[in-house]
Amino acid sequence: MYTQFSFQVPEHEKESFLAAIVDLPFAAFEETDQGFISALEINQVDERLLSYLDEMQRSIPFAFHTDDLPQENWNAIWESSFEEILIDDFCQIRAPFHALNPMVRHHILIEPRMAFGTGHHETTRLVIRALQHLGMHQMSVCDFGSGTGILAILSDKMGAHQVHAIEHDRIAYANLVENIDLNDCSGIQARLGDNLSTIDLASIDCLLVNITRNVILHHLEHMVAVLSPQGQLITSGFLQKDSRAILGAATSLDLKLLDSYTENDWVCHRFERG
User: Fold this and answer.
1) Which range of residues forms the domain containing residue 40?
2) Cα separation of 220 and 216, whole Å?
3) CA 82 to CA 264: how far, in whole Å?
4) Based on the domain organization, do 184 and 267 belong to the same domain?
5) pLDDT digits over 50-64, tens only?
6) Are both 251 and 176 inside the same structural domain?
7) Best CA proximity match to 158, nearest among 91, 234, 209
8) Is the overall model pTM greater than 0.85, yes or no?
9) Residue 115, pLDDT score
């Protein structure tokens, strides 16, 4: 069983709401005219989560109600709402029921199983745009917080010679493995975990990190340690108001900012190890 959450959020508060709720175990959100719909397995809904939502309401004006929903019904609602994504003529992200676009360079096929990173969120698209102008041939890549695996799969299709995909959520990890198989990317090394402990130091040419501000700051020192000399860190998952904290921490670790990308109020930075 699932518990469906229907959030009523004013339009001008939607970005702040998503940024504040991202640390909770919601794997995906469907945007509605009133706000957002999401769901959790019924055993994930506890007093701690409800208290966090109550605390959020003190700073962000929103309301919500819950309904019990059988698992198959929620999956059907989520999958039927999935729309293909086109990023210029560079990348198409589609489900099996979408036609392949022959005018696009890279095609990614995913099963939409509620995992974060389907390409619909600004931050996933921002990282893809950062990759668009990057030569990945023969690079060693790590996608930390891989979600559906879109960024790892794209890296493989762009010619990376070694790709690691690390995801901590078991549902998202199962979808990650499924999508790797769907795209015939058998060379991607997928791992269930929440850290970079299995990655050799100074071994990664490009580290992709599309997670939250606090998680980035917590792991940033280890992220830098696994980068090769002149290795690149592409990071997103935070709002413009949080960018100063990311940039300050990066500078203190001798990361050089190469460029930045924005969409709405979300930011992506590309750094190089000094």
Assistant:
1) 2-79
2) 6
3) 21
4) yes
5) 999 999 999 999 999
6) yes
7) 91
8) no
9) 44
